[in-house]
Amino acid sequence: MNLYMGKMLVVDLTAGSVTTEPLRAEWLREYWGAWGLALRYYTDAVSPEVDPLAPENVVVIMTAPLCGTMVPLASRMCLVSKSPHTGTIFESNVGGSFGPELKYAGYDGIIIKGRACAPVFLKIDDDRVSLESAEHMTGQGIFETEKLMEAAIGAHGAKTLAIGPAAENMITYSMIGSESYRQFGRGGTGALFGSKNLKGIVCRGTGAVRVADMARFLERTDYYTKNDLLCDDNLWAKTDGTPILVEVTNEMGIHPTRNYTKGFNGRKEKLNSDAIQAAKLGNRACASCPMACGKFTRVNSAEIEGPEYETLCLGGSNCDIHDLEAVIRFNRLCDDLGLDTMTCGSTISLAMEMTESGVHNFNLRFGQVDEYLKIVYEIATLSTERGRDLAKGAKHLAAKYGAEALSMEVKGLEMPAYEPRGNFGMGIAYATSERGACHLRAFPIFATDPHDLEALVSDVVDAQNANSIKWSLGFCDFWGTINTTIEADLMSAGLGEPVSAEELDRAGERIWNLSRLFNLAAGFTAADDTLPKKIMERPLEGGRHEGRVFSRADLARAMQSYYELRDWSAKGIPSSRKLAALGLDTTIL
Amino acid sequence: MKKELFANPDLCTGCNRCTLACSANKEGVFQPSKARMRVTNFPLRGFSVPNICFQCPKANCLEACPTDAMFRGADGVVRLNRDLCSGCGACVTACPYGMVEQDAKGIPYKCDLCDGDPACAKECHSEALVHAAGDAALFQLKAAQMKTRHNSGTPLEKRHKIAEALKKNSRG
């Protein structure tokens, strides 16, 4: 088979069995790979009412067709399941090189079912696949777990996915780490592994990914690499990486500061790209990527690949922490213990505001480094009262103490580091994402008018459809100029059969609508397409959008046009006409 | 001036475009495990080492070959004449850098610098691999890399040990 390996691994942890099954060929031209294909497998395997942490839930990990080839920025791997943090359908993707390794071992993806009776890890050594005891890894951090699994396979360079104590404790914002500093970061992917008693996966693959015509494939790849990827619009990733956004968002007045009280941080120079460059030891890349956006830094004895923008802001500015060494230590603790830095940072900043405003004293205050670093361990290990409180995430922490007005989340997922009062497009993106407040579905921060609702609704719909197929083909966000014409050309060259941009466009919209159908069936309604109270009621302080709110009336207007543009009912339900046009059969749920 | 292949680990990002390009060129598929040069990654320390064949002036692989299948071309590159190869694997054992391996039939494969235009260096966007006449700094790097030699273990183990030493020098 070209591009695909044609085989899925099926792991039943309850039965302790590992089998293989042929890839469902009939789904490929509709769902393609990664997000889309994992979603299709997932909806086939579970009912939308499933309890995310029950043995009945299933986790699907899926590579993409161009993964493992020389097409750059195309090797991201997706995980799809129902999130224990949000209760929604959830897609999370990771870079690095586990995805390519899994394909070299001969598999497009892994379906994980059931629950092991004792901790295990999955060992994949080409076609020798087994479940092994992970008793000796219990309680270990991700870094040590990866080392132990690599030793178990007996080959340096084996690729790993691992969880830490936070996930063993089933904290709903624990993550799965890969190659030390990369993650299936959001939505509690780690807790899914933890609930299944699965400590990790180690993989060594020595096989090959094939294409229809290597000369043509390389010619097309080289053409788009030189003429589209490595151009001015994308080169920020090579020179600066995501820390460049610290200056960009401050300039725009959308840089969350002090738990989303302000849109501008007067001490931004402490954590901006120049600060990162000054601490940089080298550049790091995912498989097959010439950009190497990862900046490996060291301050005193603290090393990390990063911190990335979201951590610099949500673990820095938003907690009023302006000390790069402290943010590196926070980042490293999260990466090793297994917590999502975004939700963790956001929950800490909420607790800081709750303490300072007298709601409840967590002994956490803005700008206070010592307690900010201590609390990370307390959360991951559930070792103190306040640690157990913060381990619930922002929504449930705020609910427990009646502080809903301070909690910054949508559908339970804490907001990324772009202030919606300063850019209504980000607000629309957060309100309508299938997984809650997320910046990876639409990212309209560069809109000409950041408060033109009609134009922004249209931008958001287009971006959601485009990203649905982009993530399904395994592409990275940072090939910002790619479009379905380029994607179709590369897929055609690899498969050796024509693929059109139109069918990819339609697949993107199909994937978005299927996610919506899942959430509706799981009990979500239009009322959940909303924004935090603070965004709708409290005027933004500082920066160029000082005084702005994203009012309920504006949000209602935006949602009405969003549903209309999507051909969904006023209740946010996809019309039968739209579903028919996309070839979506609702009985698959 | 004769060009040589040089590796600078401090600039390597670990992306493996080099091994993908090599396998595409030599095997017609994307298969880093069959690449003639390799990358050893240490993600936790943010460090990667491109392992390359140095086309050693005094080549152990060539000297160990009992059938004269290994030979040096006019361009200085050490190559294999498959017709003369018995598949004994002496060259694999002899290479102190882990840069000669055997395929499933026992036939060894190694870097031949793509007959003067190495695919790996063309795909390196960070200048960790360069194919050039070389300057003092590059020759110093190469000399330092060639100093660490391992006479036992599999090619993977040898490459790993060499990479460990280079990591220690660079990152502590």
TrEMBL record, chain A:
Q: In its keyword annotation, does this UniProt entry include Metal-binding?
A: yes
Q: Which InterPro entries match?
A: Ald_Fedxn_OxRdtase_dom2 (IPR013984), Ald_Fedxn_OxRdtase_dom3 (IPR013985), Ald_Fedxn_OxRdtase_N (IPR013983), Ald_Fedxn_OxRdtase_N_sf (IPR036503), OxRdtase_Ald_Fedxn_C (IPR001203), Tungsten_al_ferr_oxy-like_C (IPR036021), W-dependent_AOR (IPR051919)
Q: Which cofactor does it need?
A: tungstopterin; [4Fe-4S] cluster
The Aldehyde ferredoxin oxidoreductase N-terminal domain, residue ranges:
4-207
**Which SMART domains does the record associate with it?**
AFOR_N
The keyword 4Fe-4S appears for this protein:
yes
What keywords would UniProt list here?
Answer: 4Fe-4S, Iron, Iron-sulfur, Metal-binding, Oxidoreductase
Species of the source: Geomonas paludis
Family assignment? Answer: Belongs to the AOR/FOR family.
Task: State the protein's name.
Answer: Aldehyde ferredoxin oxidoreductase family protein
From TrEMBL, chain B:
One Pfam family cited in the UniProt record for this chain? Fer4_11
PROSITE patterns associated with the record: 4FE4S_FER_1, 4FE4S_FER_2
The record's SUPFAM superfamilies line, in alphabetical order, gives:
4Fe-4S ferredoxins
The protein's required cofactors: [4Fe-4S] cluster
UniProt function note: Ferredoxins are iron-sulfur proteins that transfer electrons in a wide variety of metabolic reactions.
Provide the protein name.
Ferredoxin
List the InterPro entries: 4Fe4S_Fe-S-bd, 4Fe4S_Fe_S_CS, 7Fe_ferredoxin, RnfB_subfamily
